[in-house]
Design a protein that fits this description.
4 strands
Length: 116
């Protein structure tokens, strides 16, 4: 099942370190089959407020996503980004191709009935 590294980047400072980070990050992803799905493009906000930009990287699974983030190669360049861009990063497992939200609703309904 695919997994994702999701970053919500809020405040950015254009700095030479960011350019270096961008030049080096793909080489850290390649051994873990990571690929950019979204990379900071302007978003069309249709509900609420979205300050900043978004990055979404897909991996074959959560094992690969964790291994990438914790890899010596990525840890070596991480501070190039974190020193100049404020944000949050999380790793999250995706849903299976046949995911049905109705089943999730049924589970939540059953849990709610047990606790009431």
């Amino acid at each position: 099942m695919p997994a994702y590294a999701f970053a919500h980047l809020r405040s950015r400072r254009h700095h030479p370190d960011i350019i270096e980070y961008l030049e080096r990050v793909q080489a850290t992803l390649d051994p873990f089959a990571g690929r950019f799905v979204i990379h900071g493009l302007p978003a069309e906000v249709v509900e609420g407020i979205w300050p900043g930009s978004m990055v979404l990287i897909e991996f074959p699974g959560l094992i690969e996503a964790r291994a990438w983030y914790n890899s010596p190669a990525y840890q070596e360049i991480l501070q190039l980004r974190t020193d100049h861009i404020q944000g949050d990063v999380l790793l999250i497992e995706g849903v299976e191709p046949n995911y049905d939200p109705v089943l999730r609703a049924d589970k939540l309904r059953a849990e709610a009935q047990r606790t009431s």
